[in-house]
Specification:
By secondary structure, the protein is an all-alpha fold. The protein has eight helices and no strands. It has two domains: 91 residues, no CATH class; 106 residues. Helix content is 86%, strand content 0%.
């Protein structure tokens, strides 16, 4: 039991996440592909209504898209996790994700804000080296009145060759960490659900013994 508890307390590693997703790769892939296709079709159908909504509400109506986008994003995340964690098929996972999300809306919203703000800050920090890579090009252009920018262009190209793959790698690590955080959050939420009946059943056995 102690070994099991120790294993449960270990943070999720990239290898653990990959090995956990491997048996469900095609199910998760097809679900996300279907979501992307459906989102594209629905988006095309809603282009005109969204434009009209923005025009007639002076743009304020677009604020309604924020909670809708938030809800859809969380449903996709929780559905994916439910398919892997509880080994459910797609439609059962969607229903399960909806149930867990609605029942724990406050906690999920708080976690979404924490991870969202963290992702924005780290994303900006990761993008900073790429933006700074253009500095030699700009300086070279200003110094030569943009008559020749060969030196700056070469330096900028070298910096981009270094920073773009590095940023992509670190972005993947960040995404894996966020998925790991959501997976742990989901586990805690469903473990809270399963703990409640056990407490009640223990209490009932104690009453019968008396």
């Amino acid at each position: 039991m102690a070994d099991e508890a120790g294993e449960e307390e270990k943070p999720l590693s990239l290898k653990a996440i990959f090995m956990g997703l491997k048996p469900f790769y095609w199910k998760v892939f097809l679900f996300n592909l279907g979501y992307q296709i459906a989102g594209f079709i629905v988006g095309l159908m809603l282009v005109l209504p969204i434009i009209l909504l923005a025009v007639f509400t002076c743009g304020f109506g677009l604020l309604l898209m924020i909670p809708i986008g938030w809800l859809v994003s969380l449903m996709v995340t929780f559905t994916t996790i439910a398919m892997v964690e509880e080994k459910l098929d797609v439609f059962k996972a969607i229903g399960r994700a909806w149930k867990v999300l609605i029942k724990n809306l406050g906690n999920v919203l708080l976690m979404f804000l924490i991870l969202g703000v963290g992702q924005i800050i780290i994303g900006l920090l990761l993008a900073l080296p790429i933006l700074m890579s253009f500095t030699p090009l700009v300086i070279n252009g200003i110094a030569t009145s943009f008559q020749t920018i060969t030196t700056g262009l070469v330096i900028t190209g070298i910096l981009l060759l270094i920073f773009v793959p590095l940023t992509a790698f670190l972005g993947g690590v960040l995404r894996a960490y966020v998925w790991g955080a959501w997976t742990l959050t989901y586990r805690n939420l469903i473990s809270g659900e399963s703990a409640e009946p056990e407490v009640l059943s223990t209490k009932k056995r104690g009453d019968k013994a008396d």
